[in-house]
Amino acid sequence: MRDTWGEKVFYRVNYVLLALAALSCLLPIVHVASVSLSDSHAVMSGLVSLWPVGWSLESYTALIDGTNIVTAFKNNLVITAVGVVLSMSATIMAAYPLSRPYFYWRKRFTLAIVFTMLFGGGLIPTYLVIKSLGLINSYGAIWLPGLVSAFNMLVLKTYFEGLPAEMEEAARMDGCSEWRLLAQIVLPLSMPVLAALTLFYAVGYWNAFMNVLIYINSPEKHNMTVLVQQMVQSQSLLQEINGIQQEDIKQMTPEGIKTAGILVMIVPMLIVYPFLQKYFVKGVMVGAVKG
């Protein structure tokens, strides 16, 4: 069937709007990358826009040698890897029983979880709870408050409910236990939505900022988000960098080092996303349709 004139106009307007939205996301990243790779004189002269001028890696050298970016990067990896494993495990263990029709009080438990999406405890009560648990200055304060996202749990619960009941019945007739049913039947059939939720949690933990700033006192335990934020706000960044000769400092600009830090922070997620993109789209759309 051929598209009508109105449909053709609608599609073209959509393409234009989506292209503008994509450019608004892409161009700032390209500009940040160009500034970080440009010569300091070109940066100070304002000659850099969307392409590096006078290629230079001095900003990255100063960032690695003179700041705690390597330690912060390792902290980011620990926070993200452990956090994703804990959150995905807890989300699966919460969503699976609530998706079973024979689970007692499943609707009441679900309503209680939905209630937390509308009303929160607030910053100060949460801080007091974390402090009373002795988690201040430990990564437990990062992982515990966001261990299970109610939204992610409901998406996974909806997906579990949509799986064919005949497969579960056949598995039970073969003597399959509840744990084996979850591990060998339900989870392998839920890979798209699991990949999407893994990406949600990974991005959240990788970009964690407020929790780290509030609960982590030791600078050695800070992640890259906090480190880059401190660098961006610093008025004397070049004087704070350690181990760099004065002659080399003259060849650098604070903007170059700040943009290098920003790029180092966002590149890992840009690398991971294409590998999960096909699962991400499929998982989110399936959950949305059935929800």
Structural description of this entry:
With 291 residues, this protein is mainly α. It is built from 16 helices and no strands. It has helices at 5-36, 40-44, 58-66, 69-99, 106-118, 123-132, 140-143, 150-161, 165-173, 178-189, 191-206, 210-215, 224-233, 237-240, 246-249, 254-290. α3 packs across α16. The radius of gyration is 24 Å and the shape is globular.
- Helix coverage percent: over 70%
> Based on CA inertia axes, which overall geometry fits?
globular
**Which spans have pLDDT < 50 for at least 5 consecutive residues?**
none
SSE string, helix = H, strand = E?
Answer: HHHHHHHHHHHHHHHH
Alpha plus pi helix count: 16
**How far is the N terminus from the C terminus?**
30 Å
Instruction: Assess the beta-strand content as a share of residues.
Output: under 5%
Overall structural class, as computed from helix and strand content, comes to mainly alpha
Q: Describe the biggest sheet?
A: none
* Number of beta strands: 0
Average of the residue pLDDT scores: 84
User: Gyration radius, to the nearest Å?
Assistant: 24 Å
